[in-house]
Amino acid sequence: METKYIFITGGVASSLGKGIISASLGKLLQARGYKITIQKFDPYINIDPGTLNPYEHGECYVTADGQETDLDLGHYERFTGIRTTRDNSVTTGKIYLSVIERERRGDYLGKTIQVVPHITDEIKRRIRLNASKEPFDFVITEIGGTIGDIEGQPFLEAIRQLRWELGRNALNIHLTYVPYLSAAGELKTKPTQTSVKQLQGLGIQPEVLVLRTEHDLSDDLRAKVAHFCNVEVEAVIQSQDLSSIYEVPLNMLRQGLDAICLKKMGIEPGPPPELKDWRSFLERRRNALNVLTIGLVGKYSLQDAYKSITESLTHAGVYRDRKVKAVFINSEEITADNVADRLEGLDGIVICPGFGHRGIEGKIIAAGYARTRDLPAFGICLGMQMMVIEYSRNVLGLKDADSMEMNPVTPHNVIDMMEEQKNITNLGGTMRLGAYNCRLAEGSKARAAYGGADLVSERHRHRYEVNNHFRDALEASGMKCVGINPENDLVEIVEVPSHRWYIGTQFHPEYSSTVLCPHPLFMDFIKACAGND
Ligand code: GLN
After folding, report:
1. Residue 191 class from Cβ within 10 Å (0-12 exposed, 13-18 middle, 19+ buried)?
2. Residues 31, 275 contacting (CB under 8 angstroms)
3. What is the distance between the alpha carbons of residues 519 and 502, in angstroms, rounded to a whole number?
4. pLDDT tens for residues 2-32?
5. Atom of ligand 1 nearest to the CA of 355
6. Catalytic site positions
7. Which ligand 1 atom is the nearest neighbour of the CA of 383?
8. How far is the CA of 400 from the centre of ligand 1 (A)?
9. Cα separation of 451 and 436, whole Å?
10. pTM tops 0.90
11. CA nearest 73: which of 526, 446, 459?
């Protein structure tokens, strides 16, 4: 089958859930037996979100091949189980960089380089790149931002051209918002009409509209939108608030989003997919009423900063029949005096990843508290490094043990900069990124959690590492280095075996947990947090 391209754009407001709709549609098409991929095109000028503060753009997600990307790629992977690559995440920065590099090489043979056609051609090339490498039936492309953004224009122009070139093999879904005015007691479709007009003004007629709403939309209202926007009534879909993002694929299926897309692209949809495993996950989720409260000890007090971690906890919780309530604990506010208070009532803690000095003493105190009270604790990346520092200070007696990231002059640099990082001056894209192997020690808890596996591969995003100089001392005093990279001998996992569950990973297991395949370490952690209740 010729590759078909589905473009997902958004209007009226940001944060309407384009990523979830893209992932849900991908899931439905995949469940029908199609080979799909989903990619995100972001109109900002950064080459990737790697250098962005989480307050700017939420969590930075990392692909197995080492690309720092938008957190929507996490949704794509968690919903569909596909493995995205660096070609699934494109920014304006990446587009311009390659055009300018080509210009410098002289590839344009004396031409003036312009947004149209050079930038738009490069966008079109990137949109088709994944399908030139693998035979995808469907490539879903989510365009970041909102219609009307100045920086989004070249992307929309590229889509307009591609739709012309691809004919029936291309389709546009436009996601908008239908607000409810409580004073008038009415839902308002005007912003949707305006947004579609704007898109039409750019030469793009959407075939399908998805209306985000907090209230149920009547048939009349949908018919009105269809009428004003040149869209068939059955192609006006509503996306109302649901109890979980994982309910969205079923909601889209009920309204036939996948079937409409197929029909519009000339494919007879046939019977709807069953989604058995997906439904049983949701069923289990609904029945998991026993609550586990897990503290996320970190410094970013925003929902999206630890997205993959909270989703991984949710997945594992469901498969352990627990409803996980993740509560944010600001590590900047934790002191030796209040730690017992702050962590009171928690079934376990995750000591979160991060960069820089702010909030790390609180993480160290929380690590010590969990270790000495036998509270299950999962340290991830910086969190693992803080576990090692706490252990070095309080068990090895190295009072000034620290990370070179925070204290470059400490004699007890138990966390040190990796050798290959020492001459790096640029911050963007230069960390240890992507999947690396990890050999698991026999008899360790970590290995048991992985079902006895000897070798696993996990994704990384860091510059610092456990200093091998202190490895023997750590081991001798009870903190075991049970995961080691076989190629470069870096410590990947530490654990304290005498503890109920005290494990730190230098890698980020949260990037690879999916709805149908929860991550083994999260599964084991949740089991420990649930104890015997
Ligand atoms: N700042 C630490 C490092 O660079 C940890 C990074 C992280 O938690 N992702 O090694």
Report:
1. middle
2. yes
3. 17
4. 999 999 999 998 889 999 999 999 999 999 9
5. 1
6. 381, 508, 510
7. 8
8. 20
9. 19
10. yes
11. 459
